[in-house]
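Batch job 17 of 40 flagged for manual review because the log was empty.
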Amino acid sequence: MANSTKRSSKIREVGIAGGREVVLSGTPRTLGVRLLALTRKKVTAEMRIKSLHINRSGRVNGGAIMAFADVLGAAGTVANLKPGYHTGTLESKTNFFAAGVGPVLSAVSIPLHIGRTTMVWQTTIKNPDGRTVAIVTQTQIVIPARSDAN
């Protein structure tokens, strides 16, 4: 039992660190995503709105909102992966409810399903006044490590 606990603990530590790496990588860094909290069951972050986020109507571009959600779902998935596994987004659906406005959008992502081959995350993005901007549901594929025997 002690070995099982050690292994489980190691998977958790590796996964959480990997999830943090997702948020610190190129696109999230360019978007200005700031990780606030990351566990295997919840990701919380914010995105400070910059001129690069704004569309011609003066609101946050829908693609930027979708990318923000994608980063959080990916980070949550990576936090739950076993060492050597990786992931990619299979499907993403966005429902928009209000225009995104700054200075900061906040988001919470929670798992709807954590499975062996897929994970589904739902991210709710809000304006500073608490109004829901969008809810994004994404499916992430879980890809096992390749065997050297192949």
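Reviewer: the log was empty due to a logging misconfiguration, but the result itself is present. The longest strand covers residues 132-143. Unflagging and moving on to job 18.
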